[in-house]
Amino acid sequence: MTSQIIALIIFVGIFTLATLRKVHLGVIMFAGAAGVGIWLADMEMKQVVAGFPISILVLLVGVTYFFAIAQANGTVDKIIESAIARVGDNAFVLPLVFFALTAGISAMGSPLAGLVMTPIGMPLAKKYGIDRMLMGLAIGCGLSAGGFAPTSLFGIVTYGTAHSVGIPLNPLLLFAVALGANIVLLAAAYVMFGGFKLLKTRAPGEIGPAIAPNLAIKAPLPAHPFEREGIAKRSAQIARGGLKTLERTETPAAVRPRMNPTQLITVLCMAGLVASVIALALFGLDPDIGVLCFAFAAVMTLVDPKTGKTAVAKIDWSTVLMVGGIITFVGVLQKMGAVELLGDAASQIGSPLIAALVICLIGGLVSAFASTTGMLAALVPLAIPLVASGDIAGWALIAALGVCSSIVDVSPFSTVGATLVATVDEEERPRINQLLTRWGMSMVVIGPLGLVGALVLPTMF
């Protein structure tokens, strides 16, 4: 038992050290896994390395490569332009549109890619008399919802890790839970921050084709979650200097350029990917989304070789290494029996429901300050003992844990919240910072209570 406790202390210590020092978690985790495995668990190096999750690697690489091509050839920009140009002057609909756009972008491999909407949405909210808190939460909820799509990082890590430890979880069900939870939160934001009052007013300007040609998003895909300060500074710079094209001009409306053949083929491939995943799931098959992404990406690369070559550099190798390092270490902990030890400790709480609530509370609290992806990879395996008891459905607990770890990301202590604060006017930042702190910290409690009550509790009867 002593070696198991030491291994767990090392695991937590690495998490803390990487967060405080802002170094890559995966590098230290992999080194720690090797050290603990060889010296404390009497494992051979090949046994340690065997715990590296190859299936998740294929998923992450395939998905980020596919959507990097769509970003590089301008298809994503065209979709955003088209959506915003159709809003008109209906201020009430604007946060809903940004929720949908952010969710769509976040579903394209990297949840933090949705942050490119913040330097657009926040100034537009000011122009059209929308509470910036409402717009910020619309973007934050969209990012959380889209991040759990079967093609995005949070979803891939959650159901991929669940499958690797023997817990069945349907990717589409996970996405549906995340989408439903965030829609509820967005509705609450509309009530709390004057969203429904916008029904009685019309916007002072017009969002239409006049601005569409200038709306191309030039911000690159947000990098790894640890690059929090860089994302916030970049978004602030865009907000100060890159949004003048959003102001209404007096020149005649320009005709929006149509998609070129490459972009049309990209849209067809995106639709084909979604249709393939849904069709395979309906036939009871387990779609390998990573392989499907590689297949459609191959088509897009053959159509436009230059873009395909450029997109290789945008594959999210950083996240692959981070998730791989964490899961490799967790694999060592499992072989040592440390995970089972934690499960026994959780079972001593007396109630599986309370134990599930505690795990979700820990996930939400830590994720509010650290990497959501890292928390998902680390905590999902800890649900094994609770699921093994048969009192709790595995899919319900993992889905609740995943969403609880994501909806707190709007706190200003995380990448998402910091970016939202950075993209409002300086005089508004104290208010937004205070409100986002209250919202994020309240989600640490409200999320577990609501999701465990809605998902886990019914499965116990």
Automatic annotation (TrEMBL):
<feature type="transmembrane region" description="Helical">
    <location>
        <begin position="23"/>
        <end position="41"/>
    </location>
</feature>
<feature type="domain" description="Dicarboxylate carrier MatC N-terminal">
    <location>
        <begin position="1"/>
        <end position="147"/>
    </location>
</feature>
<dbReference type="InterPro" id="IPR009827">
    <property type="entry name" value="MatC_N"/>
</dbReference>
<feature type="transmembrane region" description="Helical">
    <location>
        <begin position="264"/>
        <end position="283"/>
    </location>
</feature>
<keyword id="KW-0472">Membrane</keyword>
<feature type="transmembrane region" description="Helical">
    <location>
        <begin position="172"/>
        <end position="193"/>
    </location>
</feature>
<feature type="transmembrane region" description="Helical">
    <location>
        <begin position="317"/>
        <end position="333"/>
    </location>
</feature>
<feature type="transmembrane region" description="Helical">
    <location>
        <begin position="392"/>
        <end position="416"/>
    </location>
</feature>
<feature type="transmembrane region" description="Helical">
    <location>
        <begin position="353"/>
        <end position="380"/>
    </location>
</feature>
<dbReference type="Pfam" id="PF07158">
    <property type="entry name" value="MatC_N"/>
</dbReference>
<feature type="transmembrane region" description="Helical">
    <location>
        <begin position="92"/>
        <end position="116"/>
    </location>
</feature>
<feature type="transmembrane region" description="Helical">
    <location>
        <begin position="137"/>
        <end position="160"/>
    </location>
</feature>
<keyword id="KW-1133">Transmembrane helix</keyword>
<keyword id="KW-0812">Transmembrane</keyword>
<protein>
    <submittedName>
        <fullName>Di/tricarboxylate transporter</fullName>
    </submittedName>
</protein>
<feature type="transmembrane region" description="Helical">
    <location>
        <begin position="48"/>
        <end position="72"/>
    </location>
</feature>
<feature type="transmembrane region" description="Helical">
    <location>
        <begin position="436"/>
        <end position="457"/>
    </location>
</feature>
